[in-house]
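FAQ: What does the model actually see?

It sees only this:
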Amino acid sequence: MAAKFDRKWRLFLLVLGFCLQILAGKDFYAILGVTRNASKKEIKKAYRKLAMKWHPDKHPDDEKAHEMFHDLSTAYEALSDDEKRKIYDAHGEEGLKKMAGENGHDPFDSFNSFFGGFNFHFGGSDHSHRRDTPKGADIVMDLDVTLEELYTGEFIEVMRYKPESETIPGTRKCNCRQEMRTTQLGPGRFQMAQEEVCDECPAVKYVNKMKKLEVEIEPGMIDGQECSRFVGEGEPHIDGDPGDLKFIIKEQRHPRFYRDGMTLYTNVTVSLVDALNGFEMDIQHLDGHKVRVTREKITWPGATIKKKEQGMPSYDNNNLFGDLFITFDVDFPRGTLDDEEKEAVTKLLKQKSSQTVYNGL
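And it is asked to produce this:
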């Protein structure tokens, strides 16, 4: 009897959980393929990858892809915002809908913050049209990036004021071109001349609008590398498409590490006591993990050790790492030793007095 009751109770709980899941709405974490404790960076990375995969331009006739793209944008909008994420975690999708009211969300807004929003194409039949359409100038901007961000990867938010056109009353000349016109001067006499011909287009004005862009810094990127291109976020063109906005990495000087490709270098100064007796220490790496350094033999000024795979990650394969080279200097005590101390040092070191002059460059 008890076993039968237990089975019924488990079945009831299973059905109840299923019903609650339906009432709560869609599982945004599952849609993005992340865990419930995923960081904001992991959420952004997952959305960026999946949004490219399911963009409607790649699947123009696939309703499932369009629905998936919409769900991805809805999930990202909720989970990338701390306040909305708290509400979703507590009350599900229905709780978010009650908070938002009737305000809808354009699924392309999130996508545009990562890639730009004007005429974004994945290929197709309108390439020839794009070649014929005038385009505004591209904008190239340096982006200050820390060595920590280049080691772990990061998303950097950039606020940009972009001039956008708005229609105003009136018209303007547009699409002007040179055409040949023929005029009859008399019987059998004609004159041909070039003439500028223009269309009539609505008048426009430019208004600066603020946009948030998400620039992805991938692990292993280097100074001077183009890290992101935002389509249509460059200079506008009154009769065509705006140019693109490109971000170029400008690596910031680091107080502890110097980088050369995948190799990292750092310097450590130790006391004379540690140099003679040996020591153990930890060096905090760029992502916070500790690199253990143990020296049992004497450390001299300029001594260098190599820590394998403790350098920068490879941009092409983030599972590969360069090496870390640690060069030591010795902090000698200041002052003067008395005769007794000098004799004790000489006996201890068992080293003869020696001076050598040479070119050290």
